[in-house]
Amino acid sequence: MAIIDDRPPLGFISIDVILHRPPGDPFNKDTWPFPLIREKVDGSSEAQVVCVGPYDEVFINKFVEAGERLAKRGAVGIITSCGFLAMAQPEYVYPIANHVFNLIH
User: Is the whole-model pTM more than 0.85?
Assistant: First the structure.
């Protein structure tokens, strides 16, 4: 018998990379005591994230779109585990937050 968890999920955005994600890693559903829903940003890569210059608009928009998909799926918060993305956080967080706010109100 499956256990149904009616708590709202946390959303996770990740770059499109294959990594071992053991329990304890934020991308692993077993890490959290509540539901986790995930979105990989198609076409994103480590080389795009670890760069010298600013991220281009197309790259940022892919993260915004992933965040919007998570919000539509019911995510009450959205995280990532990529510290390099902190440099662009204002560029992708504010559009996602506005989308979530509009869904709630």
Answer: no
